[in-house]
Amino acid sequence: MCEPPICDAVRREGLDDIAALLLRGELNAVFQPIVWMREGAILGYEGLVRGPLGSPLHAPDRLFEAARARGLSVRIEHRCCRVVVRRFAALGLPGRLFLNIGPMALLHAADGALDLIALLAESGLDPARVVIEITEQDQGAFWTDLPPVIARLRAKGLQFAIDDLGSGFSNLGRWLDLRPEFIKTDKVFTAGIQDDLLRQQILRSVCDIATVAGAVVVAEGVETLDELACMADLGVACAQGYYIQRPADEPVPPRWSELTAGLAERRLRDMRDMHEASDGRESDPAHDGAEGRALRLLRRVPCVSSAVSNEAVFDLFRRQPDLHTVPVVDDEVPVGMLTRACLIERFSLPYQRELYGPKPCRLFMDVAPLIVDMHTPLMTLSRWLAESEGHGLANDFIITGRGRYLGIGSSQDLLQALNRLQLRAAQHANPLTQLPGNVPIDRQIQRFLTAGQAFVACHADLDHFKPFNDVFGYRCGDDVIQLLGRVLSAHADAGQDFLGHIGGDDFILLFRSPDWQAKCEAMLADFSRGMARLLEGMGRVAAAGYEAEDRQGQRRHYDPPTLSLGAVLVEPGAYQSRHQIAQAASEAKTQAKKRVGPCLYVERRRPRASSAAPSATSLSTASLGVAGKEQGPTDRNL
């Protein structure tokens, strides 16, 4: 798109030397990487702009402040877009380009002042690789005009992000209006987050909302290993900041292994590993979200140091009749626990109060109370209480965050919370197989997508089930479905895989096991053997099959039900929503059902959107059990 000559614009508008400097285009693009937290794969780069080196306008905040003062905000933003897009294309950087633009500049970009689509075409960039970060330097007066503009650009393949959520005028209302694919949280929530429970809870809530909305959360401003570790523990999908890499004019991919060298050791020291605590059972309803963890049970109660006298603790119990447990904490670290019953029993003995009342409470405290991290799953906690010697379901326990005292939890609250979780899980379970239904399936797929995890989505379906059910009745049909549920459950790894029952004879498996293909083949073989035993027990169906009406009402011969599996490899960035994954798995299942007999069909072709995917994945193709680099589908009959 042609622009008026710079010198003419300068003369016509009477701009001073600084404004002329802005219009001459002495702007430089720099790029800062955004990485997936799981493995450090590149999601993309945020394009940033610097003014002329050595001038007062080199810093971007002063550059844009000067532009606003002279009414050049829109023009300077458009020029920045051109500089960033062209430089990104020239460098051949991988992943997505995150492009900053304000609401007013975006509106003008749509009316001809900046043709984004033409600019991308000129630079050879696929629009699907571009994410528009909508910045907010004003109070959002132009937001009401944005939805149709955003819809037109989305139709061309562009995606959107809300920048600096929680800063300035960014709010949840913007989230509702825009429905962005990415949410970038402001650095104010990142700074010192490892020591701030409120910041952690806010970020966790943002991640929970993003899971429902199908958005990816990017935490900005990560500047230390502690902050990076905390973000990983909170389940934040992506991160960006100086600790990972500073903006550079020619960036190189950050060395993730070096950045996270101390991460594992620090986690082991500061908090229990959440995956180990839950035995890896991510699909357990009691492990799902904050409600399924010990933090849900937290109660704030007074604590004392180990040097406080027994008499002072006794007086504390006397003044607070509802208080039954007092934690003993030194330098924010729990070292013991005192109970009302224990102290009263001690003082009831002759001369004990007179002798030990003035002495420190460390003499009477339980030096080995049960201490749990706030992220400990409730099911794991209940097992610890049941198995713990000297404790039990009648005792309270101490809850910590990164090793620091937070409060206590009670066994009564634990039992009530477990009951609520089980009731909620039952609401979404299939009544025939008791396996998770559609809602938990959708949540698990979205959780994998948000976390940038690679997995295999496998749709299991029975061949000739409807005529079998029609001829022999729903009770025999239920026996077949329950047989299938047992076979799939027997081979799915509860620590890595997820099994759900969509309904009828349709099941979904989400594999993270490297040997998923071998598991699928074992499922096919075991179901065939189980079906043979079931038919033999019925005594009415020969192995040769039976006669029944087809969908057109014509009598025809049917073989006994067999199992078909359609599998799709899902890599980070290859699919944008759980609906796309479900459709792809269903199409793979349809291809499997075209084969005669038990069959596993693996769809290896990538969707078109995969060009925007990161160059590395959290599970490599080899680790998912895929031999070679075939791009076409494969199938295997047993």
From TrEMBL:
CDD domains: EAL, GGDEF. It comes from the Bacteria. One of its GO terms (molecular function) is cyclic-guanylate-specific phosphodiesterase activity. Residues 453-606 form the GGDEF domain. Pfam families: CBS, EAL, GGDEF. Residues 609-624 have a biased composition (Low complexity). SMART domains: EAL, GGDEF. Residues 297-355 form the CBS domain. This is Diguanylate cyclase (GGDEF)-like protein. Residues 603-638 are annotated as: Disordered. Keywords: CBS domain. Residues 11-261 form the EAL domain. InterPro entries: CBS_dom, CBS_dom_sf, Cyclic-di-GMP_PDE-like, EAL_dom, EAL_sf, GGDEF_dom, Nucleotide_cyclase, Rev_trsase/Diguanyl_cyclase.
